[in-house]
Amino acid sequence: MVQIAGGAHRRAFTPLEKKYKKMSRNFLTGFTLIEVMVATAILAVGVLLIYEALFISLDSFNYCRRYLYLAPRADDILWRAGNDLACFGAVGAIGSSGEFNVENKRVEWSLGYGEISSKSKLYRINLSFLWKEGSRDARLSRSGYALYRETE
């Protein structure tokens, strides 16, 4: 017997209906264990990729945020060093390194300068900030020039 619309029953006449009726007694419908395991594995890989992308974007955001915070500070240190070299030459008291904290991250900076031309007293100034960003070292570098003008 096959149920039709309205709740009435009729006999199975076609071979397909007879075969389906015979199979439904022997087999239960649903998902097999292998199908569930494959679906779970695919879902786990998808979630893993989404989390990886999230952590990469958070790492990049934090680097950019610190970069935007440190760039004006780097320009200020570079300007002061250039001003000292322009006014006093190589005998000026220029700090060569230091460290400070930004949002509980230790930032180290180093400043170096060298005379490019002894005839014109032109100096090249190099400034670097170094900090840990996750598992990698992040760096911000700036360079500038200063010309010492002797006063008469």
Detail the topology: elements first, then pairings:
Blueprint: E1 2-3, E2 9-10, H1 15-26, H2 33-88, E3 97-102, E4 105-117, E5 122-133, E6 136-147
Antiparallel strand pairs: 1-2, 3-4, 4-5, 5-6
Question: What are the segments in which pLDDT stays under 50 over at least 5 consecutive residues?
Answer: none
Q: Which H/E pattern describes the elements?
A: EEHHEEEE
Strand order of the largest sheet: 3-4-5-6
The gross shape turns out to be: rod-shaped
Oligomer: single chain
Nutshell version of this structure?
The protein has 152 residues and is of the alpha+beta class.
Walk me through the structure.
The protein is of the alpha+beta class and 152 residues long. It has one domain (33-147). It is 45% helix and 31% strand. It contains 2 helices and 6 strands. Strands 3-4-5-6 form a 4-stranded antiparallel sheet, with helices on one face. A two-stranded antiparallel sheet has the order 1-2. β3 and β4 form a beta hairpin. The longest helix has 56 residues, at 33-88. It is rod-shaped. It starts with a strand and ends in a 5-residue tail after the last strand. The model has no long low-confidence stretch (mean pLDDT 82).
Task: Tag the structure with descriptive keywords.
alpha+beta; two-stranded antiparallel sheet; single chain; 6 strands; 2 helices; four-stranded antiparallel sheet; 152 residues; rod-shaped; 31% strand
